[in-house]
Amino acid sequence: MVNSIHDKGYKQCALSVMDNISDPRIAFDEQGICSYYYQYQQAEQQQVLKGEEGRQRLAAIVEKIKASGQGKPYDCITGVSGGVDSTYLALQAKKLGLRPLIVHFDNGWNSELSVMNIENIITRLDFDLHTMVVDWNEFKDIQLAYLKASVVDIEAITDHAIIGTLYKLAVQHGIKYILSGTNIVTEFVLPSYWIWSKTDHVNIKAIHKTFGTVPLKTFPFFSNRLKHYYVRTKGIETISLLNYMPYEKATVKEVITNELGWRDYGGKHYESIFTRFYQGYILPTKFLIDKRKAHLSTLIFSGQITKEEALEELKNPIYDPEQFRTDYEFVLKKFKLTEPEFQGIMAQPRKEHNEYAHEKNNIWDNYPILKPFRGLWRKMKA
């Protein structure tokens, strides 16, 4: 149905605002509909439960979580950034009678507004908060290494640390369930061209070894092998709770504003100063990626906005000019980079993550020292 190679020249999806500028690997069918539309339809059908089916499934999940937490301070754990999804998830957890441990990962880039939003969540919902404060010198050095490596997914570092922290705390507190704010109807579209595996500790170490200067003594490294241990041995399960309830972005913003005093950041994940700078300047300038196209296209696919509304939104500047000038100066100062140094980094061509060492799909590639024993292992398994 979908051709693997699109025609040369500019092409935009007939239904959404995804195009071959932000994603050169995008594919279209004979009607000009991109593959993301069909992928979204399949994901929504398989993972999003609506109406009575959703309510019953949600009730069963909540009952299971509560039962697992009997006699314990917490029955689940969830990360909170102060953004829309994590804020609404915390609110729904409270309304459902759950007792989550709230975790916030402070990587040194919190905006004042995000701090206020998180304080409101904790105070108004009366939840316990665990804040993981990363060593700034280490974290800065990893971020600078990623910038110098010219790879696209700089945010993988933060995501990696958050995932590792949640699993570690879950084990420490005897918690079996991690609540995730990820959801299909507002977040599904995310091209592989824009991201890298969030659990690839090998890639992080390789990039840092090449460009870093500070020893990494405290950064919470995490791996697929460790994740398998947590899931299979410790029985920890991650649940995307928002897929089992109505989730309309505009309505959700009104709810958390009215009930939690939440204030909007003006962009998805803009609660972080670096994320705002990364998505508003680094991605579109260096990589020609406008993440708004994916966010808006998901909302189109889920029927929350029209393509015409999305096109109007894209006419707005991706970055408020005054905010950009403030952030630009702040980011360079925080990184201790001169403007020529930073612009030199920005001028370097894109490199793929897999041009550096990375985690493979099998143990023999990840641990070359074991390769001589591969034949013996196969005989034992036969």
For the structure shown, list the relevant keywords.
382 residues; alpha/beta; five-stranded parallel beta sheet; disordered C terminus
Radius of gyration (Å): 22 Å
Pattern of helices and strands:
HHEHEHEHHEHHHEHHHHHHHH
Q: Would you identify the CATH H-level superfamily?
A: HUPs
Low-confidence stretches: 1-7, 362-374, 376-382
| Shape category | globular
Helix content: 40-55%
Instruction: Please report the first level of CATH classification, the CATH class.
Output: Alpha Beta
> What is the CATH topology assignment?
Rossmann fold
Mean pLDDT: 91
Number of helices: 17
Side by side, the strands of the main sheet go 3-2-1-4-5
Account of the 3D structure:
The chain is of the alpha/beta class. The protein has a single domain (about 50-290, about 320-355), classed as Rossmann fold. It has 17 helices and five strands. It has helices at about 35-45, 50-70, 85-95, 110-125, 135-150, 155-170, 185, 200-210, 225-235, 250-260, 275-285, 290-300, 305-315, 320-335, 340-345, 365, 375-380, and strands at about 75-80, 100-105, 130-135, 175-180, 235-240. A five-stranded parallel sheet has the order 3-2-1-4-5, sandwiched between helices. Residues about 1-5, about 360-375 and about 375-380 have low confidence and may be disordered.
